[in-house]
């Protein structure tokens, strides 16, 4: 065999080998990518009905529909998807909008990816309100708006949140603590309201003025945190205490038992511990959650949280201000922030309210 023929055969063999290796490499790359995709957790979107998704803007015909348990009105798009939910007696509304991710890597691996934007209407909802001018004006302004909503406000107080100041130089947002230590150096003081965090006197609608306490500056207990978000920031009316004035009461128990908003899950069973709800499917993002946690407080609800919806692991999660983390968190220290399963908070969950 001549040298030329031998060279040609070797070249041909080399080319075939290279092509085979390239083909195998491409095949393995595709397989590895597919394997990685299969392992990746699926993102669950929070909707009024888990079977309905709001995957794209809807420009077709919209319809209004009345639903029960609780009594509410939903706005549906041309494909039947829920675009907004309005509950009788509540000012809280959920509007579909751009997808957002809420996370707190310092304290949990939980992530909430949601299209729900939680906002306060100027008046409580009632059947037929979609025809009233106040609502038409409000809806036109806020549907599709990316202005800070209740969720965005809530995460402006978690660990590492940047400080924000008003025109007078007063910090109104930024990393908050739960409260200072008690004299024992172990437990933390409660009853830290939004005006303590702000460090300024606050006059309520009934004329009562409350003074901040210097040692509680930048502190928000669980109910103070909700009052900061819904009241001081979103402008829901606030009481000076559980009994003085009108609006959202001062404590978790006061909120749970008040007539403001609409009870979505009522307190049930014998006092003082009551019973855990059997059905939590009626909840929607933005609801207030109440927990019975301490035998020393009699029949009082001891903790309040903001329901965020379903995280990417499929769990129903919340954010609240807690002693273990010393401030607002959706984290796992002291118990995962979940109301499903049999974890610490899940077992102590008792009722829910939609403001």
From TrEMBL:
Keywords associated with the record: Hydrolase, Protease, Signal, Thiol protease
Q: Coiled-coil stretches, from where to where? A: none
Q: Does the keyword Transmembrane apply?
A: no
Task: Provide the NlpC/P60 domain boundaries.
Answer: 184-355
Which organism encodes this protein?
Streptomyces cuspidosporus
Q: Which domain of life does the protein's organism represent?
A: Bacteria
Residue span of the signal peptide, if any? 1-26
Family note? Belongs to the peptidase C40 family.
Residues of the region (Disordered) are 38-58
**Name used for this protein in its record:** NlpC/P60 domain-containing protein
User: Has UniProt tagged this entry with the keyword Protease?
Assistant: yes
SUPFAM superfamilies per UniProt: Cysteine proteinases
């Amino acid at each position: 065999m001549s040298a030329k023929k031998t060279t040609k055969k070797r070249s041909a063999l080399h080319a075939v080998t290279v092509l085979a290796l390239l083909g195998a490499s491409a095949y393995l790359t595709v397989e590895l990518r597919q394997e990685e995709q299969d392992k990746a957790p699926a993102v669950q979107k929070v909707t009024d009905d888990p079977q309905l998704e709001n995957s794209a803007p809807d420009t077709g015909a919209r319809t209004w529909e009345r639903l029960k348990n609780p009594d509410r009105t939903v706005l549906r798009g041309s494909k039947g998807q829920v675009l907004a939910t309005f509950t009788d007696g509540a000012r809280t509304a959920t509007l579909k909008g751009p997808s957002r991710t809420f996370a707190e890597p310092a304290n949990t691996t939980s992530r909430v990816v949601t299209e729900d934007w939680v906002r306060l209407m100027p008046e409580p909802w009632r059947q037929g309100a979609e025809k009233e001018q106040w609502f038409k004006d409000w809806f036109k302004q806020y549907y599709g708006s990316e202005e800070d909503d209740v969720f965005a406000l809530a995460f402006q107080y978690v660990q590492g949140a940047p400080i924000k100041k008003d025109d007078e130089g007063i910090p109104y947002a930024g990393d908050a603590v739960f409260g200072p230590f008690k004299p024992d150096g172990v437990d933390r003081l409660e009853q830290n309201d939004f005006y303590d965090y702000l460090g300024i006197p606050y006059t309520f609608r009934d004329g009562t003025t409350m003074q901040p306490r210097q040692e509680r500056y930048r502190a928000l207990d669980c109910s103070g945190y909700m009052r900061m978000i819904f009241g001081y920031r979103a402008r829901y009316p606030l009481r000076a205490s559980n009994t003085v004035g009108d609006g959202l009461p001062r404590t978790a128990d006061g909120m749970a038992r008040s007539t403001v908003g609409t009870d979505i899950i009522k307190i049930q069973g014998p006092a003082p511990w009551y019973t855990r709800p059997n059905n939590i499917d009626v909840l929607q993002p933005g609801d207030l959650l109440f927990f019975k946690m301490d035998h020393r407080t009699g029949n009082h609800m001891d903790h309040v949280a903001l329901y965020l919806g379903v995280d990417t692991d499929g769990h129903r999660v919340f954010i609240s201000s807690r002693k273990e983390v010393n401030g607002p968190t959706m984290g796992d220290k002291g118990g995962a922030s979940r109301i499903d399963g049999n974890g610490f908070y899940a077992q102590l969950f008792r009722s829910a309210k939609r403001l």
